[in-house]
Amino acid sequence: MSGASEDRWDERLVCYVVSLAYDFRGRTGRLDMIAHNCCDMGRCVAIFRGIDPEVAVIETYAGGERDTIFRKQGKEWRAFLPG
Q: Would the N or C end of the chain have less CB density within 10 A of its end CB?
């Protein structure tokens, strides 16, 4: 962990967060973490559902690299590796 002041440990996401953003038109969330981090999927989905209950996709990035895509399929959320 870098420990730099711009990196913030988030208890809800269980990772070091650089930034979090939401596109209301595309119903897409984005979570940027420091390298070698991953978040808690259920908690991540809950945070973005708190922003917009109709969120459909959440993309996570670790160290600037695309990490995981969470996508709502029907009533279920599923995780996918970018590819």
A: C
CB 76 within 8 A of CB 49: no
Measured between alpha carbons, how far is 62 from 24 in angstroms, rounded to an integer? Answer: 22
pTM: 0.89
Low-confidence ranges of the chain (pLDDT < 50): 1-2
The proportion of the chain whose per-residue pLDDT surpasses 70, expressed as a percent, equals: 92
Number of domains in the chain: 1
| Residue 52 counted as domain residue | yes
Nearest to 33 by CA among 48, 12, 18: 18
Residue 26: inside a domain? yes
Task: Look at residue 62 and tell me if it is in a domain.
Answer: yes
